[in-house]
Every structure is written in C-alpha cells, then in structure tokens.
Design brief:
The protein is built from 7 helices and no strands. With about 170 residues, the chain is mainly alpha-helical. Helix 2 runs antiparallel to helix 6, helix 4 packs across helix 5 and helix 4 packs across helix 7. The radius of gyration is 15 Å and the shape is globular. About 40% of the residues are buried.
C-alpha cells in the first residue's frame, strides 16, 4: 500500500472505535479530495500505484482517527449511524483475520474499486473524490461479507454529502 506497515494497518482496523469514525472520515475525505484536485492526479491511466496511494490515505486516516478533535461535525442521521456502526464492525472483522483480512481488503476491494472509480469519473475531480472516498470506506464496512449492502453505501454517501455541506458552509 504505502509507507504504513501491514501490522500498523491491521492494528488501525482493530482499534477503530465508533467515536473515532467521524474523525477518520474527515481525515480521509480531506486527503482524498486534496489529491484528486492536485497536479499529482494524472487524470488518465490509473494503476495500482494510484490505488496504493489512496489506500495509504485510508489507513493513515484509520491510524490517526483517535487523535482528531472535531470542533464541529455534521448531524448523524439514522442512515449514517448504521453505516458507521457497520464500518467499525467490518474493520474489526477484517483485523481478526490478520494478513488474510488485509489481502481481502487491499487486493480484492481497495485496488480494483479505487482504479475503477478514478477511471469512471475522470472528467470530474469532485465525483472522483466522492466515489473513491465512499468506496474506500465501503471496502472496510463490507468486512467479511461478500454481498453488497445498498443501505450501508447510502449511509456513506449521505455522510459525504453532510461533510460537504458543513465544509462548504465554513
């Protein structure tokens, strides 16, 4: 993934607490949006290196989540709360499988989803950022599950919209 060790990744997943999720969301959202609007975004020919960079952003957000002191955050709806609860459950499920959980998360979810979302929305950095961020979080929320969960994805996108509204108003 990035400079973060695999043990740090597993530890970050294992210790994610429900109260830390908003901070993780904000850290990750800020880093993803900064990258998609930067000159580092090639706006074409996405590959594993781009997925690794953004996956590293996710794990940095997870690792640093407990250190974030939020002065303000958007209201938490029932849909957002369900998605956040599932995000914590999924993180703990993946961590409980150690290397196998990381491989599932990184190789089967983060890498293909990130490349796909970057390519799909290449003409809109805003859309790239929103969808990439959502799929990074969703990859964790899936945990051990194989079936898609539209309600969880809806909660993640609702959280994106809430953060976007709050940050745009500042």
């Amino acid at each position: 993934m990035s400079e973060i060790t695999r043990q740090t990744m597993t530890d970050a997943l294992a210790r994610l607490a429900r109260e830390d999720v908003p901070g993780m969301e904000l850290l990750t959202l800020d880093a993803v949006m900064t990258w998609v609007f930067s000159d580092e975004n090639p706006r074409e020919s996405y590959d594993r290196s781009h997925a690794s960079l953004l996956g590293g952003v996710l794990f940095t957000g997870l690792d640093d989540a407990a250190t974030v002191a939020l002065n303000d955050q958007p209201p938490e709806t029932e849909t957002i709360a369900r998605a956040r609860d599932r995000l914590v459950e999924g993180a703990h499920e993946l961590a409980s499988h150690g290397e196998a959980g990381l491989d599932m998360l990184i190789e089967r979810r983060i890498v293909p989803a990130t490349i796909g979302e970057l390519e799909r929305s290449v003409d809109s950095p805003t859309q790239q950022g929103a969808c990439t961020w959502a799929y990074l979080l969703y990859a964790i929320a899936m945990g051990e599950r194989q079936d898609q969960d539209e309600q969880i994805m809806a909660g993640i996108f609702e959280s994106f919209d809430a953060w976007n509204a709050l940050l745009s108003a500042q």
